[in-house]
Specification:
alpha+beta, Neuraminidase, 2 domains, 15% helix, globular, disordered N terminus, F-box_dom, DUF7595, F-box-like_dom_sf
């Protein structure tokens, strides 16, 4: 039986007991092991009037039960900010609270702090590395760690020459390097926040077809509906916040197929046919692998050419949503997202020329189209970025990755070919942060930012990290 472990699939045995122990290499564990800057004090009496006093005689157990029953996630975050005691309870019991709360009352707020940065491949054959935002660097002490840091001392070469496949809900999917003349597909799912790494059973050459699209599904995706009840699905929904399904979609001759890995059973399910799917060729399928998927009302969507291709999680029936008309060809510069009230979003870069009697100026803007509840029309919002957030001399902009739970989009921009910067932009707050820079000829960072995958932690990890702010002045 496949177990969660932090090592390469190899001939040497692994201890199931060691695999079940919490990993000390996760970002949360590393941050907690750092000495606090705040001087600890010994409490000999009941605190009166300080930050630990919440003014209520309720026990910890009662308070945790109240927190677990809150309908809105933002209410839970506000409770954690009330006092130190409540913060420690919310953070310490984050797994229980999220397990008890199957879904949150819509609209679900977009939490900017969930987005921590992005993974990228620095060079051919090297393990993927991580570039953190400024806030993530302060809170977690991240300094461009490699994925190999999660398995240091166990199997140091596991992620060498690997390929980033998907990133969603705090989980990263990596395709491991294949040996020569080996056709089996080896995937690995890891949670950098907890340090948990799972090597999945390989899929033989006849069990999967490349290229394939991939996404991670968690309990929120199956319970996020109006009546708060689980949808009727082909396989049982994930049983806990740490459980997940891995959905692969690929093209067989004459039809579109899919296959699901279930973490609770540690197994791959049988191949299934996606019903009523439009024919997808290899080029279309390859385009789905680089932009990621979003889940809206039990449908997983990928962007394919001029449509959003969806697979229903309950019936495995395909859905096809036409793209909004922007008036210009975005040349594939399109990402999908989710609005705070749970509607499908399309984010596109639109370029146009503004001519004046003296000059001809290129205009670069980001169009955010949100699908209306009727499903037939779109609400458009235009965000001017050049001259407002980016230097006026910026000549190009390319969207790279959309983090759906935080509403943060990662994009690259620059002037010519000499400088290529990576930015993170909150669509709702319209705030932009430069995350990384690259000058051709130095720095060891690829000019194309190959395989860039944005990363945002899940809600359980976010709640667990709140107590870290109490350790800093």
């Amino acid at each position: 039986m496949q177990t969660r472990r932090r090592a390469r699939l190899s001939s040497r045995p692994y201890s199931a007991v060691a695999a079940a122990e919490p990993c000390p290499r996760g970002w949360l564990a590393v941050r907690r092991s750092r000495p606090s800057k705040r001087a600890r004090r010994v409490v000999t009496t009941i605190p009166q009037g300080d930050g630990d006093d919440d003014g209520t005689p309720l026990t910890d157990e009662i308070l945790v039960g109240i927190f677990a029953g809150l309908p809105d996630f933002s209410d839970l975050v506000r409770c954690a900010a009330t006092c130190r005691r409540w913060c420690r309870l919310v953070s310490g019991e984050a797994a229980f609270i999220c397990r008890a709360k199957r879904c949150w009352t819509p609209p679900s707020p977009l939490i900017r702090s969930l987005a921590l940065g992005f993974f990228y491949s620095p060079r051919h054959g090297a393990a993927p590395r991580f570039a953190a935002t400024a806030s993530a660097s302060r809170r977690l002490g991240l300094r461009q760690p490699s994925l190999n840091a999660l398995i240091q001392g166990l199997d140091d070469g596991l992620f060498d020459a690997s390929r980033l496949v998907a990133s969603r809900n705090g989980l990263l999917v990596v395709e491991l390097q294949r040996r020569k003349r080996e056709r089996a597909l080896k995937l690995c799912v890891c949670n950098p926040m907890t340090g948990e790494v799972t090597v999945l059973p390989p899929l033989g050459g006849k069990e999967i077809v490349s290229p394939f699209a991939c996404t991670v599904l968690t309990a929120d995706d199956y319970y996020n509906n109006d009546d708060k009840s689980p949808v009727s699905v082909v396989c049982e929904p994930p049983s806990s916040p740490s459980s997940y399904h891995l959905l692969l979609v690929y093209a067989r001759r004459g039809f579109t197929a899919c296959r699901t890995y279930v973490s609770d059973g540690c197994r791959w399910g049988p191949e299934a046919k996606v019903r009523d799917a439009a024919p997808l060729g290899k080029k279309a399928m390859a385009s789905m692998t680089g932009t990621g998927a979003v889940v809206v009302r039990n449908v997983a969507y990928w962007h394919v050419k001029n449509i959003a291709f969806g697979v229903r999680l309950d019936t495995l029936r395909a859905e096809h949503v036409g793209m909004p008309v922007s008036g210009h060809d975005p040349a594939g510069n399109t990402l999908l997202g989710v609005s705070p009230d749970g509607r499908l979003r399309v984010v596109q870069v639109v370029e146009s020329m503004c001519a004046t009697p003296a000059t001809v100026k290129r205009r670069v803007a980001i169009n955010v189209d949100t699908r209306r509840a009727t499903g037939k029309e779109w609400d458009l919002e235009v965000i001017e970025v050049v001259g407002r957030f980016l230097p006026a001399e910026t000549t190009w902009l390319r969207l790279r990755w959309m983090c759906e739970k935080s509403g943060v989009v990662f994009f690259t921009a620059g002037c010519g070919d000499l400088r290529k910067d990576v930015y993170a932009m909150s669509l709702d707050k319209q705030e932009v942060e430069k995350v990384a820079s690259h000058h051709d000829g130095g720095g060891g960072i690829p000019s194309s930012w190959a395989d860039l995958r944005g990363y945002e932690m899940d809600r359980t990890s976010y709640l667990s990290s709140l107590v870290m702010d109490e350790d800093d002045p």
